[in-house]
């Protein structure tokens, strides 16, 4: 990781439902944290970010003059500071020059990054790690890669799109147009389809039912965990990271998720001495539920 400066750092995590902003001190401690609903569309995103930024300034009582890091879903072209295909935010069609729009409204420099990549930086900051895979299990399934201290974005910004690796030729059609992708098995949306739960988050409902001994819940949980384990196996065989970190909305489950995925990894390695020797289960950890990983990573972007 690069050396930090002595200034305060601001990070914004812009999501479909909320914009979470925070201020880090030079040692990486969170000084202030603000959450506001996200308005859709270009102007709505900018207004939401401006409200959060102003609230952070008031909360800290200090001028926030450094570069603001912003994480946002969608395809991000970092050099241009533009975003595309952030469908849940109402950003469709042509590239949106969000970096420049935000910089003009906030009055400070802005750096833009994909939200999973920003979260990867936040995950690395937890242990000052330089080599890891961050697996984000939210509505979809994606990964961030930090290799030898550098983010790997890929030529087209598609590095880590593990959710769109097809694994089941007989599976359902994925939103990407392929059939049987990992995302159709190992994601929050897959859990919601497999275990409708009313007002309770599907992951919590499913894991609770599995703990109570419900055979159908146990089967659904194990299929989901095997899908996450398959994603980890593919990523790890490709880049062999020092650590594997689970994050995203489903990771709010905490250690029960880690244990279930670790058991699936051990089961997959049971017939392969080679795979067993890699100890993928032993490299696995989960983001603490109270750690705003994407916003923290966005703040580090500004440094």
From TrEMBL:
Which Gene3D superfamilies does the UniProt record give?
3.30.420.40
Q: Name one Pfam family in it.
A: ROK
Q: Which InterPro entries match?
A: ATPase_NBD (IPR043129), ROK (IPR000600)
| Highest rank taxon of the organism | Bacteria
Q: Which family does it belong to?
A: Belongs to the ROK (NagC/XylR) family.
Name this protein carries in UniProt:
ROK family protein
Q: Which organism is it from?
A: Nocardioides endophyticus
